[in-house]
Amino acid sequence: MSYLSSEWASDQLLVEPKELEYLDYEEKALEDYQLLLDSFDSSGINSMEYARGEGVEREWEAYHFFAQEERNAPQEVFHFINDNGQVDYFNQEQINATRNWSQGDPIPIEGMEGHHMKLVSDHPGNIELAADPNNVMFSTEIGHLEYLHGGSTRHATQSEYFTLDSTLDEKFQATLNHNEQTITVSSLEHGAMSIGGGAILSSTIGVLAEWYRLKRDPRPWRVKKSQLIKASIAFGTIGAGLSAIGFMSQHSIETLLSTVDPSILDQTMMDIMGINGTFFVISMSAAALHYYWNIKRGVSKRQAQQELQRMTVIAAGEFLAFSALGIGADILGDLAADTVMDALIPDPTGLVIVSRVAWGLFKAGKKLMESEGNKRAVKECKEVHFTYLHDNALRSRWNGG
């Protein structure tokens, strides 16, 4: 329960907004990048000499594109060959100069030259290649002559430098990757929020339940205060443990399902199975902890095993039921989902019935392959499952379970 709450809160308040922020960035960057590529039209160029200079000019235009603040390109994009023949990168001052440069201006960095990787002399008449910025690599004057040309401009580009260069598409992809890592929440940060939030929520709910129980306890509050502190630590530890298990399980299941052929299992079904698989692992982990706690409290092994078996059956039933609830409603239709639900849970609780009916009403009339409907299927399956476990957990806590 605590993991579900903290996971939902972190998703709604931080993870999803950050993902949307990155998608907005990506959409704008793709649009601007396409405009840049469209401007590199060589159909009107007739002079090889002009095309040669245009190729270098276009490489500066590309660097100018990546140097813009809203692009936030990583330093590795701005590479060149230095005086020692090694790959080097523009410093911040050089990036700023490139950002302020405009087409037609003198080059922004004195001494920087554009080298055609495939020599113009070796491809006479190939105007498109001469004007292609992907065929240009920046270098210092010494690096250009001594290393790229091997000491003479008549020499072809030394072969090892072809592996060190990168195309505009590769630079752009590196920029997207850099911003995705910068803008979105990392797995480590997401895990820390989910686990830490789970521990806090579990501790808070546990202490409230314990405080409510101790209200009728005749002992002085000085004694009961110590018990509340111990309960807070215990519930917090359990909440952190279950949250860690839930987080790792969720990501493991998502990784496993990502290898499945989409023709066998579409994305909607994968998401639903991932959600319910995570819930199942958490429920089974809680059942194991409950078994251990019963044994430690002196409950007989047979009784503890019976309780473990009961919780296992409930966890399995929930997994199958809610998988049928999501997948059945989205793939088989509402009637099929109801039939599967009844078969899986012959005597379901009132909450499951209400959840199933609510789901059926929500999905009524939706088409199978409607993409927006598929997104709602995943979201609603998660919310219905969350509500069910929320009510069940609270009922258990207040009843002293």
Q: Cα-atom Rg, whole angstroms?
A: 31 Å
Distance N to C terminus: 14 Å
Instruction: Characterize the main sheet.
Output: 2 strands, antiparallel
Strand percentage, roughly? under 5%
Total number of helices:
13
**What pattern of helices and strands is seen along the backbone?**
HHEEHEHEHHHHHHHHH
Helix content: 55-70%
Overall mean confidence score, pLDDT:
76
Overall 3D geometry? elongated
**Strand sequence of the main sheet, in spatial order?**
1-2
Brief rundown of the structure:
With 401 residues, this protein is mostly helical. The protein is built from 13 helices and 4 strands.
In words, what does this structure look like?
With 401 residues, this protein is mainly alpha-helical. The protein is built from 13 helices and four strands. It has a two-stranded antiparallel sheet. Strands 3-4 form a two-stranded antiparallel ribbon. Strand 1 (79-81) and strand 2 (87-89) form a beta hairpin. The two termini are 14 Å apart.
Write the layout of secondary structure elements.
Layout: H1 2-39, H2 48-67, E1 79-81, E2 87-89, H3 92-100, E3 112-116, H4 127-130, E4 136-140, H5 141-148, H6 168-183, H7 187-214, H8 221-257, H9 267-296, H10 301-332, H11 334-344, H12 350-363, H13 371-398
Antiparallel strand pairs: 1-2, 3-4
Helix pairs in contact: 1-6, 1-7, 1-8, 2-3, 7-8, 8-9, 9-10, 9-13, 10-11, 10-12, 10-13, 11-12, 12-13
